[in-house]
Amino acid sequence: MQKIIIVGGGPGGLAAAMLLSAQGYTIELYEKQPYIGGRTSSLQMGDFSFDLGPTIFCLPHILERLFQLSGRNLKDYVDLKEMDPLYTLIFDGFCFRPKRNIEELENQIERLFPGEGINCRRFFEHTRKKLEALLPILENKHDSVIDYLRCRSIRALPEIEMGKTMYEVAAKYFKDERLRQAFSFQAKYIGMSPWECPGAFSILPFIEHEYGIHHPIGGLNQLTKAMARVVKEYGGNIYTNSGVNKLIIKDKQVTGVQLDNGEIVHGDEVILNADFAYAMTTLVDDSKRRKYKNKVLEKKKYTCSTFMIYAGINYPLSLDHHTFIFSKDFKKYMQDITKCGNVPKDPSIYLQHATATDKTRSPKGKSSLYILVPVPNNFSNIDWEEEKLTFRQLIWSIIEKKTGVHNIQSHIEMEKIITPNNWEKDHFVFRGANFSFSHYFSQLMYFRPHNDFEEFQNVWLVGGGTHPGSGLPTIFESARITAKLLMESHH
Ligand SMILES: Cc1cc2nc3c(=O)[nH]c(=O)nc-3n(C[C@H](O)[C@H](O)[C@H](O)COP(=O)(O)OP(=O)(O)OC[C@H]3O[C@@H](n4cnc5c(N)ncnc54)[C@H](O)[C@@H]3O)c2cc1C
């Protein structure tokens, strides 16, 4: 059977490895880190456990489909818990916990924001149609202009509100500013501002309510661990501590890879899962690239980065599983991080207190607290070594003030900080832009690097840098689309 080399063991690489190993392909997956999962891996500090990156898992049926295609049942590998309410939103002096069920939510909104319940219903009715129009685009390849111009894409255009931003779409339906933000802040899930993110992505808040937000017991890292198990069950090889140093290219054909230890491995096909811009700039000489040269990559638009604090707290916190704290001026904050490149003075903060649902995350009577603050990527000139401690202090004081949990800081037993510099240097993310290229139409579908990579023969892409885009469900779809194309190319 054909031998497939996979560069990177993040969710994209592992999903592709799982699908192809199940079809009998010989899988050789090389991961640079000592662990698998990439940004969807776990972080252990003493007896406190954290997810390194993703904490919000939507559309589990997409991953279930991948497991089915691989002859497996996701439920045999992970135990999913659903969140209801979905999360807690903290605005200035006001707290909103949206229920998952759309009818219940409508009543809840009507109680809290009189007259807006009906607006919520309208928003969901319209967004349901938008999702129906978008699904064929997301589920299929976009490797040629013909794919892009296909009827299904054209027909979807009026529905997906190309000319509007996510905030403008929310503002069409809701009068209250807090509701507008509650139905557009999800742009942050893909590293963008609601004031810039295309209106098509208003499917994100709809998806949360329609399909729920899920938490695998043990964290989202369990998803990547589960896929790695399946790969091994099918006889695939996963090598950790085994970075790829360069692609071996003859004319435009890639015949294998050279590892960091100098070893050369030949294969029939190579699947790249490493962050796309990072992979191009480190694994392939600029002179060998025609379309994605360094200067082209520098000019692309990238998503924001994240400043992270992982803290082990020595008593049980009374916080919900997911909490979003909004800045007083949310628009200004988003501008600071996406346009101005400033260290925000009043940041929005996301907290995950997994211990609330999942007792495996911390020792008994204690809490694991994951804190994520969207910040500018490394195209800004911020010196994070200089700023880190002051910014950390600001974050803790906002949390204490806005959640009402006083004096947390004196209960920190363990703490780790990850800055945008660390994402770039230690996790191999180009410019620390954690969600890859921004999701503007000019960088989506045909205009994103293709699953069947256009630059070289025998090279395929999976992960946030290719079609359909960043975020776990789309990354899983990228693996399904790529694996399908690769298999078709052999028939
Ligand atoms: C803080 C944070 C929070 C996020 N939250 C969410 C969320 O809640 N929900 C959601 O759906 N998505 C979220 N995401 C986005 C996205 O789902 C994850 O980042 C996801 O892990 C990206 O998957 P990937 O396969 O594209 O890349 P990665 O996970 O980065 O995997 C790429 C792998 O390639 C490896 N690699 C790189 N270079 C080499 C090399 N030369 N040789 C061998 N291996 C190499 C890397 O070490 C890594 O393991 C979040 C991301 C971050 C960073």
TrEMBL record:
Tell me the domain of life: Bacteria
Q: Recorded E.C. number(s)?
A: 1.3.99.26, 1.3.99.28, 1.3.99.29, 1.3.99.31
Q: Does the keyword Hydrolase apply?
A: no
| A GO molecular function held by the record | oxidoreductase activity
According to the UniProt entry, the coiled-coil residues are none
EC class? oxidoreductase
Keywords tagged on the record: Carotenoid biosynthesis, Oxidoreductase
Q: One Pfam family name from the record?
A: Amino_oxidase
Q: Which pathway does the record list?
A: Carotenoid biosynthesis
Instruction: Cite the Amine oxidase domain residue spans from the record.
Output: 12-485
Q: Which PANTHER family match?
A: PHYTOENE DESATURASE
Q: Which family does it belong to?
A: Belongs to the carotenoid/retinoid oxidoreductase family. CrtN subfamily.
NCBIfam families to which the protein is assigned, alphabetical: crtI_fam
Put simply, this protein is called Phytoene desaturase
